[in-house]
Amino acid sequence: MTDHPPINVLFLCSHNAARSILAEAILNHVGGARFRAFSAGTEPASDQQPHPLALEALQSAGVDTSGLRSKSWDEFTGPDAPHMDLVITVCDDAHGEPCPLWPGHPAIAHWSFPDPMQAQGDHEALLEMFKQVMHRMHQRLELFMSLPLASLDRLVLESHAQEVAAQH
Q1: Superfamily designation of domain 7-156
Q2: For the whole model, what pTM was predicted?
């Protein structure tokens, strides 16, 4: 049990269909009451549907996928948006885009992961790529969650998030 409000983390990727969705679902699955994860994209999927293999990979790992949808980062810039403590880009394209001004001036970090949607092969090979990315994210998130985050200020949080990226 924690005396601190959860740390809100927003994961960004271009289409918010695979990597950012994976990160959101994993952190919400393993983060307990300490974290609340969200995801968004610069150019979200027009049908708001995450990539089917992202959902399949998560479900195969026992991670709840209900409520996951592809959404624009604009949802997190308005006055009624949840206050973010940390914004993490998980794809190199989104990292290179000029980000909006986030309410509350959260810490910012970049964690580069390969795009499983660019993989080629049959269903099993593609699913394996999604699972590999999911596993790497899970490892990085476990390391990140082990930090004493409740006592960190924004700049230290940003520094630690960037260090976690460098370790994997």
Answers
A1: Response regulator (3.40.50.2300)
A2: 0.86
Question: Domain locations in the chain?
Answer: 7-156
Q: What is the pLDDT along the chain (168 residues), one digit of tens a residue?
A: 446 788 899 999 989 999 999 999 999 999 988 899 999 998 898 899 999 999 999 999 999 999 999 999 999 988 888 889 899 999 876 556 667 777 777 888 889 999 999 889 999 999 999 999 999 999 999 988 887 765 555 556 666 666 766 665
R_g of the chain computed on alpha carbons: 15
Distant-in-sequence, close-in-space partners of 88: CB < 8 Å, separation ≥ 6: 9, 10, 11, 12, 23, 108, 109, 110, 111, 161
Amino acid (1-letter code) at residue 122: D
